[in-house]
Amino acid sequence: ANYGPNPICKGCLSCSKDNGCIRCQHKLFFFLRREGMRQYGECLHSCPSGYYGLRTPDMNRCSRCRIENCDSCFSRDFCTKCKAGFYSHRGRCFRGCPAGFAALEELMECVEGCEVGQWSEWGTCSRNNKTCGFKWGLETRTRQIVKKPAKDTIPCPTIAESRRCKMAMRHCPGGKWRRPAKTKDKKKKKKNLMERAQKQHSIFLATDKTSQ
After folding, report:
1. Which residues fall within 8 angstroms of residue 71, CB to CB, at 6 or more apart?
2. Top-level CATH class of 70-112?
């Protein structure tokens, strides 16, 4: 029967004009649909999004998923598919994967990621494999990969990083401090200019004496 705006009582064992289906056939699920202030029963082959099928001796029912941001669930506390923009992880839904897990975008799931150990202490400040002879250098620290990711496509975090540091000794013991190449070039040019000036001055003096 069709009771005006109410759905057709398909699959019902008993149906009410005001409440729709009251009891369903054995294999179907009873779902209580709400529209504003009204609610009415339907008999469905599968439960809608946000619900799961709960089978009982009395009557099969559609029960609401109690997991936040879940689109479909296997049971009350285990989600099988999360809403758009959320990652599925151990029956729950997350905006971002927990620590130690990486996001698998194609499936929107969290899988075991690359696990790394603790950072080592910062190494010795050096430059060009020397610990002296310069004012500034670089120091490096590293960490080891403890567990490789489940898939090769999942990248590991950085396992080495460097930062600028000030040398403990700018001048090497027992060695002569050398000026940078740029300073050397300037000094050499200045010396050449002085030599040329002196040479021209000598020529001028010799010419002057000859003219006298």
Report:
1. 49, 50, 79, 81, 82, 83
2. mainly beta
